[in-house]
Specification:
Chain lengths: ~200, ~150, ~120
């Protein structure tokens, strides 16, 4: 591919990225404004798919894969399951000034903080100088597997992944403790259960 | 109130037939992602979620009881712990073979590269098991809540 | 020109603030969790966009092509964020489970009503 064609391709990709980011922001604002939470949960699935597309454009295929599987699959199902138990209408509420001011101020401070950051996609940025080159070189010589992300996940950062798996385990145990606990002594607490349901 | 949609879903022919075609494919794809993670995008985290999604789809269409006949809650509960134990067990077996914790190179006598490859494969299996079982356990907890 | 090069961080900040607004301004607890999820996606987007290299490719080394001279995006943020997404959905589930229990105990999941009930009870 000639140099000019690479440049054109890069520019096209940048415009696609900007378009996707714009759609992402529009979706996010719509989710916050909606009062019907079933619609908001479905839109958050679309939000995840848009994110996954953006991650693909940023060359993070593994992250995109995870986001698509988790965001559009499981978390939408969980959200709708929870909404079925809690009710899906949100009370109409006026736009309040206080939170808006807080958010604008925080955002302004964060943007001030980004002014020192290296440019988007700069190969000379500090993040690319330290361990990443060693990981990329070592994956071929030490592991002989093509996917660098798997090598870093499993071996270079094995402790980290062990910790993350333990967090998932703990979260699963927590959910089971919160929601499955009462079912085993169903006979004893049936009366309180029935009155609790009567509220809803 | 959450009980009714799955009951009615079971009677829809289109959903039932389509899900019977798709669920084996989803599970097969989950296995592919699990064991092909070294070569392409994928790995235990994604495979676990995809695998759980296949079972959740089955549960949504055919009802929670049918799903619990296929995968009982006790199996799910023990798999949540089993995956993490596999991961930790690989680390400990590295220790016992004279290496450092989670240093898979010692798992194979002949080549450190094979050892590393084996170690990554096994820990990914542990991760996939824990993630899939946790997602399924969460689904059981949420879906079972509405019917007691 | 230099300021235009960091537009990705500004989008991330905008996204983060939309999430934060949902957390502090809306009363429905599930809506707060959705906002929290948005905030989390913004953080993930921040990391992944830092790992992007212009002209780079996905960090997968093809077996038959020599690795020299190919530019890969930084794999480290990808690894950290990949696990963070799955941990995020697990913690989201814990939050939703708490919301379900709150609903069963109080009969509502609107924050202002919950606070009113707690104030009246004490």
């Amino acid at each position: 591919m000639t140099y000019a064609r690479v440049r054109v391709k890069r520019r096209t990709l940048m415009w696609i990225e900007i378009l996707l980011f714009a759609l992402l922001i529009i979706t996010a604002i719509t989710i916050v404004r909606l009062n019907d939470l079933f619609a908001a949960a479905m839109l958050s699935g679309i939000f995840s798919v848009l994110c996954a597309s953006l991650f693909t454009l940023m060359d993070a295929v593994d992250v995109a894969f995870t986001e698509a599987a988790v965001g559009a699959g499981i978390s939408t199902v969980l959200m709708i399951g929870a909404l079925a138990l809690t009710g899906s209408r949100e009370d109409q509420q006026p736009t309040r000034l206080g939170p808006f001011v807080v958010v604008v101020l925080t955002g302004a401070m964060l943007i001030y903080g980004t002014l020192d950051m290296p440019a988007y996609g700069d190969p000379g940025a500090p993040i690319h100088q330290h361990v990443a080159p060693e990981y990329i070189a070592g994956t071929t010589t030490e592991f002989g597997i093509p996917n660098i992300v798997t090598a870093v996940l499993g071996s270079y950062r094995g402790f980290d992944t062990l910790g993350e798996t333990a967090v998932i385990f703990t979260a699963g145990v927590g959910v089971m403790a919160l929601l499955l606990g009462r079912r085993k002594r169903q006979g004893k607490v049936e009366s309180t259960d029935a009155s609790g349901d009567g509220n809803g | 109130m959450s009980v009714k949609p799955p009951m009615r879903m079971r009677e829809k022919v289109l959903l039932r037939v389509a899900s019977q075609v798709f669920i084996p494919l989803i599970l097969l794809f989950g296995l592919y992602v699990q064991f092909h993670g070294d070569f392409g995008p994928g790995g235990g985290f994604q495979a676990g979620v995809i695998f759980a999604a296949g079972f959740v789809l089955f549960g949504l269409i055919f009802g929670l009881e049918a799903l619990q006949r296929v995968v009982p809650l006790s199996v799910v509960e023990s798999c949540v712990a089993l995956g993490l134990l596999i991961y930790g067990g690989v680390g400990v077996s590295c220790l016992l073979r004279g290496g450092q914790f989670l240093d898979y190179g010692v798992l194979d006598h002949h080549s450190s590269m094979h050892g590393q490859h084996l170690g990554i494969l096994i820990i990914e299996l542990g991760v996939g098991l824990t993630v899939a079982a946790t997602m399924l356990a969460i689904f059981y907890a949420m879906a079972g809540r509405g019917r007691t | 020109m230099e300021a235009l090069g960091i537009w990705n961080y500004w989008v991330v900040v905008l996204l983060m603030m939309i999430g934060l607004y949902a957390v502090i301004a809306r009363d429905h607890l599930v809506k707060k969790l959705i906002g929290l999820g948005m905030f989390q996606v913004a953080v993930i987007m921040f990391y992944v966009s830092m790992g992007k290299v212009t002209g780079g490719t996905a960090p997968i080394i093809p077996e038959d092509v020599p690795a020299e001279g190919v530019l890969y995006s930084n794999p480290l943020p990808h690894v950290l964020m990949l696990t963070a997404i799955v941990v995020g959905v697990a913690t989201l589930a814990v939050g939703l489970a708490l919301v379900v229990r709150i609903r069963e105990a109080y009969g509502t999941v609107e924050e202002d009503e919950l606070q009113r009930m707690n104030g009246a009870g004490s």
